[in-house]
Design a protein that fits this description.
With about 100 residues, this protein is mostly helical. It has 5 helices and no strands. It has one domain: DNA polymerase beta, N-terminal domain-like (DNA polymerase, domain 1, Orthogonal Bundle), CATH 1.10.150.110. It has helices at about 5-15, 20-35, 40-50, 60-80, 95.
Length: about 100
């Protein structure tokens, strides 16, 4: 699940649970803002602990974005490691951190 999908999913769940409108809007606003940012930049900002520098991103939404990125990284590494190993090739750098 992408970070945008994760934020939108939480906003939908908040709506179903009849959470205050401002909470739903916060997640939708964060999803809209980060949808304009390339994923590579999101990864960089997450690694630096700087996601909250993006407009509309606070503590909670930054944690959701970080978790979604980490999950995507883990899934990428799982599929990468399940493919046949090429002799002489090292594991991808981002998989070493996952």
């Amino acid at each position: 699940m992408t970070p945008v999908e994760a934020l939108e999913r939480i906003a939908d769940l908040l709506m179903r649970g009849r959470a205050p409108a401002h909470r739903q809007q916060a997640f939708r606003r964060a999803a809209r803002e980060i949808s304009r940012v390339p994923e590579s930049e999101l990864v960089f900002l997450a690694d630096q602990g700087r996601l909250k520098e993006l407009p509309g991103v606070g503590d909670t939404t930054a944690a959701v974005i970080s978790e979604a990125l980490a999950e995507r990284r883990r899934n990428t590494c799982k599929s990468f490691s399940s493919t046949r190993r090429i002799p002489g090739r090292r594991r991808a750098r981002h998989c070493a951190r996952a």
